[in-house]
Write a structure and sequence with these properties.
- The protein has helices at 43-61, 63-71, 80-88, and strands at residues 3-4, 12-16, 19-24, 27-32, 117-121, 126-130, 145-152, 157-162, 173-177, 190-197, 208-215.
- By secondary structure, the protein is α+β, with helices and mostly antiparallel strands.
- The strands form two sheets. A seven-stranded mixed sheet has the order 8-7-10-11-5-6-9, with helices on one face. Strands 1-2-3-4 form a four-stranded antiparallel sheet, with no helix packed on it.
- The longest helix has 19 residues, at 43-61.
- 28% of the residues are buried.
Length: 216
């Protein structure tokens, strides 16, 4: 039985016919249950479920290192994880983004900082990243912290990095040893995504993207 708690226009809990009332994070929620579904496996439904599964798997790989610090604080009436899924799900017909340049690892009022170099040297087993310190442009400070996502399209691998306490914008460079990059190697197609966050977590930047050059 449904229980009206705040009048006809207020929240209620329980079920009335095919309408279900509940509360989520203090928000009154009303859902309509479909009376019947003729075909739950249409091509479009299957494709959407596949996108969702692929995007969720991708997001889980970078949840603690990137999504939580860059999304949780700014997501409205949903988790940062769900906000990331909503922003990127259409890219995931496969397990990696179909249009790499469109992936959003961060979105905020701070403009992105272009990635100058992104080179993985096989002989040194090192990914070297460089950018120009653009402190003073908009909301950018020299103490802003960089975050990274590396996608190895060839081997369908993804890695996330939070450089809090290690590198800041003013350093103009960062690097990762191959041990942290899975099996990235010769012939692989890989991409790098960069975002910055204010040291106190109050502002984040938009996403910068660059293909990684893999060299012997």
């Amino acid at each position: 039985m449904g229980i009206l708690k705040q009048g006809i226009l207020g929240g209620f809990s329980g079920k009335v016919a095919n309408v279900v009332g509940s509360s989520w994070k203090g928000i009154a929620v009303i859902k309509a249950k479909p009376l019947s579904v003729a075909n739950p496996k249409t091509a479009s439904q299957v494709a959407q479920r596949s996108k969702f599964a692929n995007c969720v798997a991708f997001a889980q790989a970078i949840l603690s290192s990137v999504i939580k610090p860059l999304w949780d604080r700014f997501a409205s009436k949903q988790s940062g994880f769900n906000a990331f899924i909503s922003a990127n799900i259409d890219l995931f017909a496969d397990v990696v983004p179909g249009t790499p340049a469109d992936l959003v690892i961060s979105s905020g009022k701070m403009a992105s900082t272009a990635i100058g170099t992104a080179v993985f040297d096989i002989s040194d087993d090192l990914l070297s990243i460089g950018w120009t310190d653009d402190t003073g442009e908009g909301f950018k400070l020299e103490s802003d912290v960089p975050f990274y996502v590396v996608v190895n399209e060839t081997k369908e691998e993804v890695f996330g990095f939070d450089l809090t306490g290690a590198v800041v914008r003013a350093d103009e460079s960062a690097s990762f040893e191959g041990d942290y990059l899975g099996s990235l190697g010769s012939g692989d197609t890989a991409y790098l995504y960069q975002a910055f966050r204010r040291a106190d977590g109050t502002i984040v930047s938009d996403t910068a993207y660059k293909a990684i050059t893999v060299q012997a």
